[in-house]
Write a structure and sequence with these properties.
Layout (H helix, E strand, L loop, with lengths): L1 H16 L14 H47 L2 E3 L10 E9 L3 E3 L2 E5 L3 E10 L3 E15 L6 E15 L13 E2 L2 E3 H12 L38 H9 L1
Antiparallel strand pairs: 1-9, 2-5, 3-4, 4-6, 5-6, 6-7, 8-9
Length: 247
């Protein structure tokens, strides 16, 4: 009887303790708003990373652009001297090349004239003959500066067609050699400068019929055409004036 009661109590104790077991912690289900916030943060991180990469790419492109400009400037400096050894021609053959020339400002009658633009395209032609080489240079130049008469802005357009000859054995004859070839190098900068100087007129005018400045008041006669009355001469010079009329 006692054994049955203990067994019954044990079963009761088991039944009593079983509901008191520690429950497992329930997992919290994230709200829909939390999902949206996480997705937004992930998109922001991806966007920031992409922006950083794009920024680095743009910076790299700018660096490459500056490097390319530096190379072009160096090439422009080197092209002032053309290496004739790079051109292998036989008699009757011709070499043609499109190059860039950098023109220098000029001074004429004490006035400064600036080429615009400073760098112009040019055509270089080298023809090999049996007795030497013929060099040809073709380009256009535009100069800006003051008018010789009225001092207003004047523009001069020039068509340059220069030729030079270098004999294979020139000897002491100056007519058979060019001053622009030395040590198998053609000085394009000096040749272009002298070619432009030879084409300059005696007077650079804003227009062919420029009236200039008034010698009395200094006004521009193109804008205000006028004339001044002749001033009366000094009576003290009357005797000399009459003597001049008699001569």
């Amino acid at each position: 009887m006692a054994a049955q009661e203990r067994s019954h109590l044990d079963r009761l104790d088991v039944r009593v303790r079983e509901p008191g077991r520690r429950r497992r912690a329930r997992r919290s289900v994230p709200r829909r708003e939390d999902h949206h916030d996480d997705a937004h943060r992930r998109r922001c991180r991806r966007g920031c990373g992409r922006a950083d990469r794009l920024g680095e790419s743009a910076a790299a492109a700018r660096c490459r652009g500056r490097a390319a400009q530096t190379c072009l400037r160096r090439y422009a400096e080197l092209i002032k001297l053309f290496n004739l050894r790079s051109v292998k021609l036989r008699s009757g053959e011709q070499y043609r090349d499109e190059i860039e020339l950098e023109l220098e400002p000029f001074e004429l009658s004490g006035e400064r004239y600036v080429p615009v633009p400073e760098e112009v395209p040019a055509a270089l032609v080298i023809t090999k003959a049996s007795t030497g080489s013929l060099f040809e240079l073709h380009f256009r130049a535009r100069l800006h500066g003051p008018c010789f008469r009225c001092l207003e802005d004047a523009v001069l357009d020039l068509e340059i067609d220069a030729r030079e000859y270098q004999a294979t054995s020139p000897g002491e004859s100056e007519d058979l050699k060019t001053p622009y070839v030395a040590d198998d190098k053609l000085d394009l900068a000096a040749w272009a400068r002298d070619a432009v100087a030879l084409e300059l007129p005696d007077k650079i005018l804003c227009r062919p019929d420029c009236a200039g400045l008034c010698p009395v008041c200094g006004k521009n006669l193109n804008d205000e055409p006028h004339a001044h009355d002749e001033e009366r001469g000094d009576s003290r010079w009357a005797a000399l004036e009459s003597l001049r009329e008699q001569l």
